[in-house]
Amino acid sequence: MTALNFFAFAVWIALFAAVSSIDVYTSKELQTKNGTDTRLKCTFSSSEPLSDDVSVSWIFRPPAGGKDMSLFYYHRQPFYPMDVRFSNRVLWDGNFKSGDASIIIRNIQQNDNGTYLCQVKNPPDVHGEMGEIVVSVVDQVKFSEILLLVLVIGVGSIVIILIVIAVVLFRYYRKNRTHSTAVSVMECREKLNDKSHDLNANA
Protein backbone atom coordinates (compact mmCIF):
# COMPACT_ATOMS: atom_id res chain seq x y z
CA MET A 1 0.00 0.00 0.00
CA THR A 2 1.46 3.31 -1.09
CA ALA A 3 1.61 6.32 1.20
CA LEU A 4 -1.15 8.01 -0.80
CA ASN A 5 -3.45 4.98 -0.54
CA PHE A 6 -2.73 4.66 3.18
CA PHE A 7 -3.55 8.34 3.70
CA ALA A 8 -6.81 7.99 1.75
CA PHE A 9 -7.75 4.91 3.80
CA ALA A 10 -7.02 6.73 7.07
CA VAL A 11 -9.17 9.68 5.98
CA TRP A 12 -12.01 7.30 5.05
CA ILE A 13 -11.82 5.62 8.46
CA ALA A 14 -11.85 9.01 10.23
CA LEU A 15 -14.83 10.22 8.22
CA PHE A 16 -16.71 6.98 8.87
CA ALA A 17 -16.05 7.23 12.61
CA ALA A 18 -17.18 10.88 12.65
CA VAL A 19 -20.40 10.21 10.72
CA SER A 20 -21.26 6.85 12.30
CA SER A 21 -21.08 7.61 16.02
CA ILE A 22 -23.37 6.91 18.91
CA ASP A 23 -23.95 9.50 21.64
CA VAL A 24 -24.57 8.38 25.21
CA TYR A 25 -26.00 10.71 27.88
CA THR A 26 -25.86 10.31 31.67
CA SER A 27 -26.24 12.56 34.71
CA LYS A 28 -22.45 12.45 35.44
CA GLU A 29 -23.10 12.57 39.20
CA LEU A 30 -25.81 11.05 41.37
CA GLN A 31 -26.42 11.19 45.11
CA THR A 32 -28.78 8.57 46.47
CA LYS A 33 -29.98 7.38 49.86
CA ASN A 34 -28.66 4.22 51.43
CA GLY A 35 -31.02 1.23 51.14
CA THR A 36 -33.15 2.59 48.28
CA ASP A 37 -33.74 1.30 44.76
CA THR A 38 -31.70 3.63 42.56
CA ARG A 39 -32.21 4.15 38.83
CA LEU A 40 -29.07 4.79 36.81
CA LYS A 41 -30.35 6.72 33.82
CA CYS A 42 -28.56 6.27 30.49
CA THR A 43 -30.01 7.47 27.19
CA PHE A 44 -28.52 7.40 23.70
CA SER A 45 -28.96 8.55 20.12
CA SER A 46 -27.63 6.72 17.09
CA SER A 47 -26.94 7.87 13.55
CA GLU A 48 -28.17 4.47 12.33
CA PRO A 49 -31.63 2.88 12.59
CA LEU A 50 -31.85 0.55 15.56
CA SER A 51 -30.97 -3.02 14.65
CA ASP A 52 -31.46 -6.35 16.38
CA ASP A 53 -27.79 -6.26 17.28
CA VAL A 54 -28.03 -3.18 19.52
CA SER A 55 -26.38 -3.86 22.86
CA VAL A 56 -25.67 -2.11 26.16
CA SER A 57 -22.93 -2.80 28.68
CA TRP A 58 -22.81 -1.48 32.24
CA ILE A 59 -19.47 -1.53 34.04
CA PHE A 60 -18.73 -0.77 37.71
CA ARG A 61 -15.46 0.89 38.67
CA PRO A 62 -14.56 1.02 42.40
CA PRO A 63 -13.77 4.48 43.83
CA ALA A 64 -10.27 3.48 44.93
CA GLY A 65 -9.36 2.12 41.53
CA GLY A 66 -9.09 -1.60 41.20
CA LYS A 67 -10.46 -3.88 38.53
CA ASP A 68 -13.56 -2.92 36.51
CA MET A 69 -16.52 -5.22 37.05
CA SER A 70 -19.08 -6.23 34.42
CA LEU A 71 -22.37 -5.18 35.97
CA PHE A 72 -24.94 -5.84 33.25
CA TYR A 73 -25.11 -6.73 29.55
CA TYR A 74 -28.07 -6.66 27.16
CA HIS A 75 -28.06 -8.15 23.66
CA ARG A 76 -31.48 -9.40 22.57
CA GLN A 77 -31.95 -10.44 26.20
CA PRO A 78 -30.59 -9.30 29.57
CA PHE A 79 -27.51 -10.94 31.08
CA TYR A 80 -27.14 -10.26 34.79
CA PRO A 81 -23.92 -10.21 36.83
CA MET A 82 -22.51 -13.39 38.23
CA ASP A 83 -20.64 -11.52 40.96
CA VAL A 84 -22.16 -12.07 44.40
CA ARG A 85 -21.91 -8.36 45.21
CA PHE A 86 -24.58 -7.32 42.68
CA SER A 87 -26.34 -10.67 42.31
CA ASN A 88 -30.15 -10.31 42.15
CA ARG A 89 -29.86 -6.53 42.64
CA VAL A 90 -29.60 -5.31 39.04
CA LEU A 91 -32.76 -4.80 37.00
CA TRP A 92 -33.12 -3.78 33.34
CA ASP A 93 -35.26 -0.64 33.14
CA GLY A 94 -34.52 0.56 29.61
CA ASN A 95 -36.29 0.66 26.26
CA PHE A 96 -34.18 0.67 23.13
CA LYS A 97 -37.04 2.03 21.00
CA SER A 98 -37.04 5.23 23.05
CA GLY A 99 -33.25 5.38 23.32
CA ASP A 100 -33.17 4.33 26.96
CA ALA A 101 -30.54 1.97 28.38
CA SER A 102 -31.16 2.53 32.10
CA ILE A 103 -30.86 0.01 34.91
CA ILE A 104 -31.94 -0.12 38.56
CA ILE A 105 -29.70 -1.07 41.49
CA ARG A 106 -31.89 -2.49 44.23
CA ASN A 107 -31.16 -1.82 47.89
CA ILE A 108 -28.07 0.24 47.09
CA GLN A 109 -25.42 0.29 49.83
CA GLN A 110 -22.55 2.59 50.72
CA ASN A 111 -20.04 0.05 49.46
CA ASP A 112 -21.69 0.51 46.05
CA ASN A 113 -20.07 3.94 45.81
CA GLY A 114 -18.11 4.27 42.60
CA THR A 115 -18.29 5.04 38.90
CA TYR A 116 -20.87 3.33 36.69
CA LEU A 117 -20.12 3.28 32.96
CA CYS A 118 -22.79 2.84 30.27
CA GLN A 119 -21.78 1.80 26.75
CA VAL A 120 -24.22 1.36 23.86
CA LYS A 121 -23.49 -0.13 20.43
CA ASN A 122 -25.76 -0.23 17.39
CA PRO A 123 -23.72 -1.86 14.60
CA PRO A 124 -22.31 -0.46 12.41
CA ASP A 125 -22.69 2.53 14.78
CA VAL A 126 -20.29 1.42 17.51
CA HIS A 127 -18.10 4.47 18.03
CA GLY A 128 -18.62 6.91 20.87
CA GLU A 129 -17.65 7.60 24.44
CA MET A 130 -19.21 5.72 27.34
CA GLY A 131 -21.63 7.51 29.66
CA GLU A 132 -20.35 7.94 33.19
CA ILE A 133 -22.17 8.30 36.53
CA VAL A 134 -20.29 8.86 39.79
CA VAL A 135 -22.62 7.50 42.48
CA SER A 136 -22.45 8.69 46.10
CA VAL A 137 -24.54 6.70 48.58
CA VAL A 138 -25.38 8.70 51.72
CA ASP A 139 -27.50 8.19 54.84
CA GLN A 140 -29.59 11.29 54.12
CA VAL A 141 -30.05 12.95 50.74
CA LYS A 142 -29.30 16.68 50.88
CA PHE A 143 -31.79 19.20 49.54
CA SER A 144 -30.85 20.25 46.06
CA GLU A 145 -30.70 23.93 45.16
CA ILE A 146 -33.74 23.56 42.90
CA LEU A 147 -35.78 21.89 45.64
CA LEU A 148 -34.74 24.61 48.08
CA LEU A 149 -35.74 27.30 45.58
CA VAL A 150 -39.14 25.66 45.02
CA LEU A 151 -39.64 25.43 48.79
CA VAL A 152 -38.77 29.11 49.30
CA ILE A 153 -41.07 30.21 46.46
CA GLY A 154 -43.89 28.02 47.77
CA VAL A 155 -43.63 29.32 51.34
CA GLY A 156 -43.35 32.93 50.10
CA SER A 157 -46.46 32.53 47.93
CA ILE A 158 -48.45 31.11 50.85
CA VAL A 159 -47.38 34.02 53.09
CA ILE A 160 -48.41 36.58 50.45
CA ILE A 161 -51.79 34.89 49.96
CA LEU A 162 -52.41 34.89 53.74
CA ILE A 163 -51.51 38.60 53.95
CA VAL A 164 -53.91 39.47 51.11
CA ILE A 165 -56.70 37.47 52.74
CA ALA A 166 -56.05 39.20 56.09
CA VAL A 167 -56.17 42.67 54.48
CA VAL A 168 -59.42 41.86 52.65
CA LEU A 169 -61.06 40.52 55.82
CA PHE A 170 -59.87 43.52 57.83
CA ARG A 171 -61.38 45.96 55.34
CA TYR A 172 -64.59 43.95 55.18
CA TYR A 173 -65.08 43.91 58.95
CA ARG A 174 -64.07 47.56 59.24
CA LYS A 175 -66.60 48.55 56.59
CA ASN A 176 -69.37 46.57 58.29
CA ARG A 177 -68.49 48.06 61.68
CA THR A 178 -68.57 51.62 60.30
CA HIS A 179 -71.90 50.93 58.66
CA SER A 180 -73.32 49.47 61.89
CA THR A 181 -72.10 52.49 63.89
CA ALA A 182 -73.71 54.90 61.42
CA VAL A 183 -77.01 53.01 61.62
CA SER A 184 -76.90 53.09 65.43
CA VAL A 185 -76.36 56.87 65.47
CA MET A 186 -79.28 57.39 63.10
CA GLU A 187 -81.52 55.21 65.26
CA CYS A 188 -80.57 57.21 68.36
CA ARG A 189 -81.38 60.49 66.61
CA GLU A 190 -84.73 59.14 65.48
CA LYS A 191 -85.58 58.04 69.02
CA LEU A 192 -84.58 61.44 70.42
CA ASN A 193 -86.72 63.17 67.80
CA ASP A 194 -89.66 60.92 68.66
CA LYS A 195 -89.32 61.76 72.35
CA SER A 196 -89.14 65.48 71.57
CA HIS A 197 -92.36 65.26 69.59
CA ASP A 198 -94.05 63.37 72.43
CA LEU A 199 -92.99 66.00 74.99
CA ASN A 200 -94.18 68.84 72.79
CA ALA A 201 -97.48 67.11 72.25
CA ASN A 202 -98.04 66.58 75.99
CA ALA A 203 -97.18 70.19 76.70
Question: Could you explain how this protein is built, in words?
Answer:
With 203 residues, this protein is α+β, with helices and mostly antiparallel strands. The chain has two domains: 21-140, Immunoglobulins (Immunoglobulin-like), CATH 2.60.40; 143-203. The protein has two helices and eleven strands. A hairpin with a 2-residue loop joins strand 6 and strand 7. The chain is rod-shaped, with a radius of gyration of 37 Å.
How many β-strand stretches?
11
SSE-based structural type:
alpha+beta
Rg estimate, integer Å: 37 Å
CATH-level-2 architecture of the largest domain: Sandwich
CATH C-level of the largest domain:
Mainly Beta
* The named CATH superfamily of the largest domain: Immunoglobulins
What would a concise description of this structure say?
The protein is an alpha+beta fold and 203 residues long.
Furnish the topology, listing elements before pairings.
Layout: H1 3-19, E1 22-26, E2 28-33, E3 38-40, E4 42-46, E5 55-61, E6 69-75, E7 78-79, E8 90-92, E9 103-105, E10 114-121, E11 131-138, H2 145-202
Parallel strand pairs: 2-11
Antiparallel strand pairs: 1-4, 3-9, 5-6, 5-10, 6-7, 8-9, 10-11
Summarize this structure as a short list of keywords or feature phrases.
203 residues; Immunoglobulin-like; six-stranded mixed sheet; three-stranded antiparallel sheet; 2 helices; 11 strands; rod-shaped; disordered N terminus
